[in-house]
Every structure is written in C-alpha cells, then in structure tokens.
Amino acid sequence: MRLGGGRARERQRVYRLCSLLLCYPDEDLLAARGELAEAAAGETAPPVARALAQLFEWWAVTEPLVLQQHYVETFDLDKRCGLYLSFYGEGERRERGLALLRLKRMYRAAGLPLEGSELPDYLPVMLEFAGSAPSGRGEIVLREHRPALELLRESLHRRETPYAHVLDAVCLTLGSPSAADRARALALAAAEPPTELVGLDSPPGLTVEAGT
Hints:
mainly alpha, TorD-like, disordered C terminus
C-alpha cells in the first residue's frame, strides 16, 4: 500500500472514493474528475485502481449532460439498479422500515449519526459510513448487504454501464461472496423487482425519525 495505516485504511479510502463516484455527477463532482482519478490511481491497490480507471476513462471523454442523463436512466429509472440496498429484498414492506431503523442506530453507535434527509440504505451513504467508521464497523454493514451489492453489480454489468466498475471496486475489497450470499443474490435476481408502494418514505405504521 502506498500510504501508511494498513489494508483497513486503504479499504476505507476506496469506500469514500466510491461513495463520491456513485453520487449524481453535478458540476462540482465533474470538476473534481482529475483529482479523483489521481487519488484512485495513487492510493488504491492495483486491481481496484484498474476497475475505477474504466469509469474515469468514460468520464473523461463524455459530455456532462450525457453523463447526467446516463446516471438518471441507470439509477433512478431502472429498479434493478437502484442504490437503496434494502429495497431489493424488502420493497416497501414494514421489514424495510425496521432495517432502516437498525442502520440508523448502527451509524449512531459508531459515533457517525446520519445527517440530512437521505435514507441510511442509500449506497453512497453506506460507503461514506464504511469509509469513516472505526473498528471495521462500516465494512460489517456492507457485508450484511452483500447479496444486494452483488445483484446491483450484476444489473449494472448487464446494462453495460461504466458504473459497474465502481461496484467491482467495492466488492474487491470485500473478497469473494459466501455461498449463502450468492444464493441470496440469485434468489433476489429471480424475484420480480419489489413494488414501490409509498416511494422512499417510511412504510405505513412505522416512522424512522432522524433522532431515532
């Protein structure tokens, strides 16, 4: 590793970087393309750097408006590519509300309470947490959602979008999925996309408050 602190710190840098790369490519993010590409090349392990380089190569030659349209079409309009990980298994059932509540409590217990209006299962939020949480707590969160990560990764590859390589980078840090994770991902893939009953708000009968 090029910077001190061991493999755990390297993984955390990957998570923070991938968190940014999965956000909407607004003007500020696109203005930082060169800086982010340098960070990916200089501060990550070679397999991760190679994966992310494929995204940066596309970013470098594509017009901002095209990048923004692609992002919306990929993550906002295709339910198989949504960035809200607990939605894949639970949809808008009460169980998803409980999963969101548990995540918020995990964030607070690690000293990193969720701020703002975004839901705690939003992948950029989860990656930001994994990049900052102490004692490997953030990585635990990602491992618990490995089946959804694998399903999202596969869906992005099927769309042939360069964003698939960001998921490749994340999964490289986690190692190979377990047999149970693979089986669960296959089950999720075989099921119909969950029905979105109430958008991305808390399901009826359960309120996930910011301070909970």
